[in-house]
Structures are given as structure tokens and as C-alpha cells.
Amino acid sequence: MQRRGCSTILVGPNGLVREGLARILAAPNFRVLESVASVRDLDLNSLAKHQPVLLILEFSNDPAAAISQIALFKEQCPLARVAVLGDPDQLDLVAAFQAGSNACFPKDIDCHALIKALELVMLGETIVPSRLLSRIPKSNGERGSAGFDSEGPAQSLVQVNGSGLPRLSSRERAILHCITEGASNKVIARKIDIAEATVKVHVKAILRKIRASNRTQAAIWAMNHASLIWPDKSHCTGDAANLSQPSGRWVQ
User: Element (H or E) spanning 35, and its range?
Assistant: First the structure.
């Protein structure tokens, strides 16, 4: 993302929720341009000069209105990215993604997991609840009942809360924990007292096992499964033992 920050729009009926989001996004590379109750309160034409643009839409008791607001926003800002924040069980997820949403998160998602997920969204990823993935076609560019095109610009899907946790060694769990903290291979090598080349080999193995294509995806996957991967802090050695345990529940 650009140094000047990603232009971010916060929309939702709850002013306190929007204020909380604005504070969470203040430190990372997001720049809040507007915070309003409805997309209809925005000057959508003026947003064209701001690129890239991210809409974070919080919904409460009217999921149908949320979908119409997504559609309205995407009609005026087709290149913008959209993340929905709310109870996925109350929202027609298929309709939301058809309208133009790129991600859906529960309101109790961990702050660090939310930031990493939003960074993925701005890189072109689509964060899809696992119960929706089975309805997305995997090849030939065919469109299924979910209405997704596998050859579209956001074809890389990040599965969340999938079944079948892969087997990671204690060393791999320690390295994965360091990855969630944003540590480089050199820093990880110093923390757990192994060669940097060895760390690189372990990182490649971790990405392969959890089916992640980069470190950011690996960090999000780890945060989602933190309670299973790290039931305690015994996975780290040396300075790594002082790292805080990542936490957060991903989209159900």
C-alpha cells in the first residue's frame, strides 16, 4: 500500500463502533476520510480522486439495507474494496459478495487479525467464510450459485476456520508465532537461535502445510487457530517466549 495510506470510508449506524474502528486504523497504513451512518451520506463522486479506497461497512439490524448500500457504493466506485463487519449468520453472504463485498468479519474479531485481513483485501484477496467456499467454482471460469467468477481479479480466496488442522512441529509453531508478530527471517533466527537459512526452510514448509501463499496469509491463519496451535507459551524459546500470544476468532 502507498505511504500516504489507504483512503478508508467507515459506514454504519453505530457511531461508537465507527469511532472505535477509526482508532484501530489510526496507527496502521489506513487514512479515514469519512465516517457516516449511511453510504447515501457520502459524496461518492468526490471519492474518485482517492485511490485506493476501502469501505468498511458495519451492519446491525438491517442486513438487507447493508447489501443495497454495498451495491450503491460499488456502482459509483467500482474499483474500491469493501469489507463488511457484523454477524455473518444474519447476512445473506451470497448476496453481499454478489453486490461487491470482498470480505466479511464478525464484530468480535481480534484487532490485529482485522488489520492483517484488511491489508490482504487491499492486495486483491477475498476473505470468504468457510461455509460459502463449497459454493464457489474452482475452475473453467464457471459461475456457481454464489455468483463468483474464478477468473475474476480477486480469485485468490483465503479460507477461514477450515477443518483438518495440519500437523506442525514445535519449531514450526514457534516460527509461525514469530511470523504473526511481523518478524523477519533474520529476527526469527536470532530469537530462537537457529540459522537464517533454516528459518527460511521452515517458513516454506509452514506455508505449504497451511496452504498459504505468503506470510500475511499465514499470520491470519495462525491467529484464527491460535488456541489450538499455542495452548500455552511453551512453543517459544529464549526471547520468543516473551512474545504475546496472538488471539482472535475468524469468520465462522
Answer: strand 30-36
Residues 78 and 180 grouped into a single domain: no
Can you give the CATH number for the domain in which 58 is found? 3.40.50.2300
- Predicted TM-score (pTM) of the model is 0.58
Residue 116 contacts residue 220 (beta carbons within 8 Å): yes
- What whole-number distance in Å separates Cα of residue 147 and Cα of residue 141? 11
- Judge whether 70 and 57 are in contact, CB under 8 Å: yes
Among 160, 184, 207, identify where a domain stops: 160
Helix/strand/coil for 129: strand
Q: Tell me the chain's radius of gyration from C-alpha atoms.
A: 19
Residue 37: give the domain boundaries. 6-160
Per-residue pLDDT of the chain (252 residues; tens, 9 = 90+): 334 578 899 999 989 999 999 998 987 778 898 999 999 898 877 776 677 899 999 987 788 888 999 999 998 888 899 999 988 778 888 888 889 999 988 887 888 888 888 888 888 888 876 555 554 444 444 443 334 443 333 333 444 334 457 788 889 889 998 988 888 999 999 998 899 989 998 999 899 888 888 888 888 888 777 777 776 544 444 333 333 333 333 332
Considering the domain architecture, whether residues 20 and 133 belong to the same structural domain is answered as: yes
CB within 8 Å of 183: residues ≥ 6 apart: 191
Q: Which three cell numbers stand for residue 169?
A: 512441529
The torsion angles phi and psi of 169, rounded to 5 degrees, stand at: -70, 165
